[in-house]
Structure to design on (283 residues):
């Protein structure tokens, strides 16, 4: 059993990665960036926001609760829309991804679902009209 | 015991999202005098005085009542700005914040239901949950009057 576990680890490596693609920019869609606005851009802060999604991974891979980055990104975008913001700046992500080996172990130990959580934070901003054209 | 495990599993499968909000920080250019606060950089030349981190602690009672400073606004408006002023700064930039354990709507409802059930049955009391919010930032002083 031990050689099998070692082989599994070697094959899968110990790096876990997760990613999400931002949708194509649209004028009607709030922008989300991990940076601030370009120097000289005038804006008003609408507030700060944090969205957290929490659930479990079933069989190591199934994510019925939607705790991946794209779900958090969608929540953040929705909060920006609700607040009437043009976008979110200085966005940060907190997520502990499971490695492939851990996910395989989760599939074997199906009776013990893994906890899964993703958090995104950011500052909601509204561009002042005189600079709005230059940013989007 | 079995019911608690089952409800935890159902909650995990359903999942849910929690949203924590805080009030507006400073505009750029700043509209009002006083401390400049931003998650980004400074709009004018400045000198860095140091860094500050505050951790707000609070308790959530019965899933809904939040007592203490475990909100996003509490640590920023109170401790963070007070520390910055004490250091001689007039701004805090690159503010980062994290509500460490926000409750989802389902978790709040479950805590409220458990509290009512406990009180009604006379066993146990109101459910309480420790809450923590951490905020960090770079304390600065603007050079001259420029903001």
């Amino acid at each position: 059993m031990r050689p099998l576990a070692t082989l599994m680890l070697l094959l899968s490596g110990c790096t876990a990665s997760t990613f999400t693609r931002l949708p194509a920019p649209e004028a009607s869609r709030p922008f989300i960036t991990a940076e601030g606005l370009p120097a000289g851009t005038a804006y008003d802060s609408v507030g700060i926001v944090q969205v957290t999604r929490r659930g479990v991974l079933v069989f190591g891979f199934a994510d019925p609760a939607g705790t991946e980055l794209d779900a958090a990104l969608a929540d953040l975008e929705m909060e920006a829309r609700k607040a009437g913001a043009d976008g979110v700046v200085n966005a940060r992500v907190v997520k502990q991804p499971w490695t492939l080996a851990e996910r395989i172990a989760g599939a074997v130990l199906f009776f013990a679902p893994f906890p899964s959580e993703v958090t995104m934070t950011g500052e909601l901003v509204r561009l002042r009209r005189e600079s709005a054209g230059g940013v989007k | 015991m079995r019911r608690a495990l089952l409800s935890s599993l159902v909650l995990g499968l359903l999942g849910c999202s929690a949203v924590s909000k805080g009030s507006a920080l400073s505009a750029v250019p700043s509209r009002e005098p006083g401390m400049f606060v931003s998650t980004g950089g400074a709009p004018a030349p400045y000198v860095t005085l140091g860094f500050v981190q505050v951790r707000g602690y609070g308790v959530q009672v019965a899933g809904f009542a939040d007592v203490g400073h475990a909100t996003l606004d509490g640590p920023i408006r109170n401790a963070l700005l007070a520390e910055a002023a004490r250091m001689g700064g007039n701004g805090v930039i690159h503010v980062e914040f994290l509500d460490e354990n926000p409750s989802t709507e389902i978790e709040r409802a479950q805590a409220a239901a458990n509290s009512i059930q406990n009180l009604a049955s006379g066993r146990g009391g109101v459910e309480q949950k420790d809450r923590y919010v951490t905020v960090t930032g770079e304390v600065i002083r603007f050079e001259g009057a420029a903001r």
